[in-house]
Specification:
single chain, mainly alpha
C-alpha cells in the first residue's frame, strides 16, 4: 500500500488538512499565511527557470503570496521540521548544489 505524504505549511511547518479543493483564499490554521502559494506547490524548484518545474506555468514574482496558478498541486512530504516546511530544505539543498559548482 502507498503511504500518503503530509501537506505542510511552508511557513510554520504545521500539517494542512484539506476537506475540499484548495482555494486561493485558504490560509494556514496555525499561522494564517496563504496556502495556495508557490512555496507549497510540488512544482516549486528554486534551481530551475522561473523556479517552477511546470513549464507552462506563468511567472509568479512573489512565491509566498496567494496566486491563481492553474497548475498548483499541494506538495507532500514525509515530514520536515517546522519553519518554512519543505521550502527551506529545498532552498538549502539548492544553495549547497550551487556552492559545490564553484569550489576549487
Amino acid at each position: 500500500s502507498r503511504v500518503e505524504g503530509m501537506k505542510l505549511c511552508h511557513r510554520c511547518g504545521s500539517e494542512v488538512h484539506l476537506l475540499s479543493e484548495l482555494q486561493r483564499t485558504d490560509s494556514c490554521r496555525n499561522c494564517l499565511t496563504d496556502l495556495k502559494v508557490c512555496l507549497n506547490c510540488r512544482f516549486f524548484d528554486p534551481s530551475v527557470n522561473n523556479q517552477c518545474r511546470e513549464t507552462q506555468a506563468e511567472w509568479c514574482p512573489d512565491k509566498e503570496k496567494a496566486n491563481f496558478c492553474e497548475f498548483f498541486v499541494f506538495g507532500e512530504t514525509a515530514g520536515n521540521p517546522p519553519g518554512m516546511g519543505g521550502a527551506q530544505h529545498d532552498r538549502e539543498r539548492a544553495r549547497s548544489k550551487f556552492d559545490s559548482l564553484f569550489k576549487k
